[in-house]
């Protein structure tokens, strides 16, 4: 699913009105009906305080007020008049005025702000995708007031004060428990810096014309189950273990053999034909016991990885980094690997830390190599960014210019590809914020690469499968108790992709 900018969303509204066709007022009614339906299904309270300005987001608020009233809810509407209302706002204001039991209060100064009962639900319909600058004056005061006073806030389309496709850092923004967003994710609803504002996001289908999506080009895509289903290649009945490649995982050091075990076991469960693990000699028994299906490449050094004394080019894919440390001998090993291996590598953890100390090595990275940094590793590799939008732009630019795939890990992991496109993942949960889950991801992506997926496909598919398995693990154990090994044990979720 494409992720659109504010301007493209406006074009989508226009396209729908022309091609369905449907009038603006009927489209607003349909959007507000979807919100009201959601509210009636999920919210048990009976008192609603609805805050609107005079744009179309406010118009949505007025329609929601009328519809909630028709379901016998107690409704009060507060209007902050910033400019002459839009046509749809004005028409709906007249319609609402016909209902004598709905009080409509105009907010002219802070003294008009109401006292809000504890059990009232606030509907935030101040600004939607039309916001184009920082709210100031009374609008800003109202946002602060709602944040300080109200307990249950539902934002319509986007929390007021958030820009759809640029950073709103330092803006006053409504803090919502739920955001009911129309038709598609807005970029702002996918970035961690805004998580405190949007709460739980629910995408409501308001039936915008799907043909529009064929006419529009976007930088960002959303990765969901349907997207992944198209990418996943079912196994041929006549296949043998040679059909699915041989992956090499280079991981572990004395005291950090768990990282090697997790990556190797995850790689084995990714569907790959064969897995070998290159580990320091202290780790052989650990690895062969914990992952007997894997073969071992034993380093001469007891504690760290030091020597590439075999033909590494025979492996279909290589993942390097989890738990290897940054010893000078390991650093020299990594340099040798970059020179010796011509196909895309998967680099994670300490491999990234070493790389960030050797910027002269960038040209040595095989084209389409996959880097999997978390935000701190990302900052070490590239630069500190002023906000999350700047960070994903940096990822896209670096992926394009360096011909790499960059997997920026987090709640909505962002995958920047050499084509210039960025993909937001939708699977996964906070239970995965636990030591070792990144090592699991490295194993999965390396296994997919070995099976013949392209780098971009392996990264997108791997991140999604990792999140799916994490979601399944959270169902079994709960987000608190789950550990990284549980993600591996739940990789059986891949079977959902195997069904036709
Ligand atoms: N027919 C349509 O186009 C539909 C629009 N819908 C709603 O309409 C919203 C967009 O409506 P609008 O484009 O009217 O804009 P909004 O209602 O989001 O914003 C109101 C107006 O405030 C002004 N403004 C922007 N930033 C401001 C600031 N910082 N301080 C003061 N004023 C500011 C702008 O002129 C803007 O038009 C969507 O988010 C959605 O809620 C939905 O009803 C679906 C259909
Ligand atoms: N809140 C979250 N929601 C979804 N996924 C998460 C969340 N927190 C962490 N993850 C995922 O877990 C993994 C953690 O990786 P990383 O930070 O490298 O951990 P480690 O170094 O402990 O292995 C990443 O794939 C990340 O996307
Ligand atoms: K809003």
Commentary on this structure:
Homotetramer. This is Bifunctional NAD(P)H-hydrate repair enzyme. Pfam families: Carb_kinase, YjeF_N. (6S)-NADPHX binds at residues 56-60, 128-134, 157, 259, 323, 374, 439. The protein has 500 residues and is an alpha/beta fold. The protein is built from 17 helices and 18 strands. An eleven-stranded mixed beta sheet has the order 1-9-18-17-16-15-14-13-10-11-12. It has a seven-stranded parallel beta sheet with strand order 4-3-2-5-6-7-8. Strand 11, helix 9 (284-290) and strand 12 (295-298) form a beta-alpha-beta unit. The radius of gyration is 26 Å and the shape is elongated. The model has no long low-confidence stretch (mean pLDDT 97). Residues 13, 24, 27-28, 31, 53, 55-58, 60, 82, 86, 127-135, 139, 156-157, 182 line the site of ligand NAX.
The strand order across the widest sheet is: 1-9-18-17-16-15-14-13-10-11-12
The hetero molecules present are: ligand NAX, adenosine-5'-diphosphate, potassium ion
What is the CATH topology assignment of the largest domain? UDP-N-acetylmuramoyl-L-alanine:D-glutamate ligase
Q: What is the CATH H-level superfamily of the largest domain?
A: Ribokinase
Low-confidence stretches: none
Determine the fraction of residues in helical runs and give it as a percent range.
25-40%
Number of beta strands: 18
Q: How many separate helices?
A: 17
Would you tell me the structural class of the helices and strands? alpha/beta
Just give the CATH class of the largest domain: Alpha Beta
The best one-word shape is: elongated
Work out the strand percent. Answer: 15-25%
Largest sheet composition? 11 strands, mixed
CATH architecture of the largest domain: 3-Layer(aba) Sandwich
- CA(first)-CA(last) distance: 21 Å
- Total domain units: 2
Tell me, rounded to a whole number, the average pLDDT. 97
Radius of gyration: 26 Å
